[in-house]
Design brief:
alpha/beta; 13 helices; 360 residues; 12 strands; five-stranded parallel β-sheet
């Protein structure tokens, strides 16, 4: 479990422990197989002792992206034997941070579900990096692909085609098909990097029979949550709280002063701040999930983190099929129940709890 009061990497710096945590997921063979496949794909792309950059830190409150970031760090530190030498985020890039500082070695771009035209700021950042460093080895860590506009897809296809050494990792079969059809680069299937965290520990004993964690952002399906509200609370995990917001503001102000050699000198401190923020967000997510005996969610990382916690849950889909595409692409673990919609989730809860145990 994460403990935000500890110094950066106190927990995740212990590489043998991280590996042992991953192996303890062997209590479910599907989780262990997925975690093992993640490392199998990424290891040949890394050079032990070499330098690397990890770009697009998720400086927003979505717990799932912070889980991905920490999983990426654990894995890359083990494979390279060192920390990232350069980090940045979308908001810092938009404010001019790093324009005079050049990433050394391999460039890794943070994975997730923002390759496409739904989350435009992240896509613009990705395209800017690829155009500016088109002759530098660049790895896009595992992503889901979704474009609404064909012209945006074609634009990115042209940018990929101009890059001299780009490898695209995708985390589901549909994204793999889109990439192979449209992009002239190496395309590899790879699980979500949050599996790099290995087994997670619950932070408390459950106090709720059921918790529903339902999206409130642009990936929401808009289904009627009143159908499941009677079985337990319905919430999302996009509220950082004052402490993390304050840390994020201080971090951005500090980063704006970093240029050239001075920036390189301060980069390890910036990375530690990123880690601290990500750990606090993931700790918040673990706390939210741990308080329930059973979880219903349309968030991919509520599914992944519930599996890593050994927590039974029902996985709904988002508005473009991201969760079902991911689950269809990898072995199904024993903690997951797939449901097509809110009605099906409500039926499972009714069977699980019975009418006498509904909340009033």
């Amino acid at each position: 479990m994460f403990n935000s009061s500890l110094p950066p990497y106190t927990l995740r710096d212990r590489l043998p422990d991280a590996r042992r945590n991953r192996e303890r997921c062997g209590r479910d063979n599907a989780i262990e197989a997925t975690a093992r496949h993640l490392e199998t794909v990424i290891a040949p792309l890394c050079e032990e002792g070499g330098s690397y950059a990890l770009l697009d830190f998720p400086d927003h409150p979505n717990v799932g992206d912070s889980a991905i970031f920490l999983g990426e760090l654990v894995l890359l530190r083990r494979l390279f034997g060192r920390n990232s030498s350069f980090v940045s985020s979308v908001s810092m890039f938009e404010k001019g941070f790093g324009r005079n500082m050049h990433p050394a070695g391999t460039i890794f771009i943070h994975g997730g579900g923002n390759l496409g035209d739904l989350w435009t700021a992240h896509q613009r950042y990705r395209e800017s990096v690829m155009m500016e460093y088109r002759n530098v080895k660049t790895i896009q860590l595992p992503q889901s692909i979704h474009f609404n506009d064909r012209e945006n897809l074609q634009r990115f296809s042209r940018i990929v085609g101009m890059h001299e050494d780009f490898t695209l990792l995708v985390r589901d079969r549909k994204s793999y098909s889109i990439a192979c059809k449209n992009f002239d680069c190496v395309v590899l299937m790879c699980p979500d990097a949050a599996y790099g965290l290995g087994r997670l520990e619950k932070s408390c004993s459950p106090e709720l029979p059921v918790l529903s964690l339902i999206r409130t952002d642009k990936e929401s399906t808009g289904e009627d949550i009143l159908k499941i509200l009677e079985y337990g609370p319905v919430e999302d995990w996009l509220d950082d709280g004052r402490r993390v917001k304050s840390l994020a503001d201080r971090l951005i102000r500090r980063a704006m002063c970093m240029t050239g050699e001075a920036g390189n000198f301060l980069m390890p401190r910036l990375l530690n701040q990123f880690i601290r923020m990500a750990e606090q967000r993931v700790a918040r997510g673990i706390n939210i999930l741990s308080k329930a005996e059973f979880v219903v969610s349309d968030r991919l990382h509520a599914h992944i983190m519930s599996s890593l916690l050994g927590l039974p849950h029902a996985a709904l889909d988002n508005n473009y099929g991201k969760i079902s595409n991911f689950i269809d692409s990898w072995p199904l673990d024993s903690f997951t129940r797939r449901v097509k919609n809110i009605d099906e989730a409500a039926a499972i809860l009714a069977t699980r709890m019975g009418p006498c145990h509904r909340t009033r």
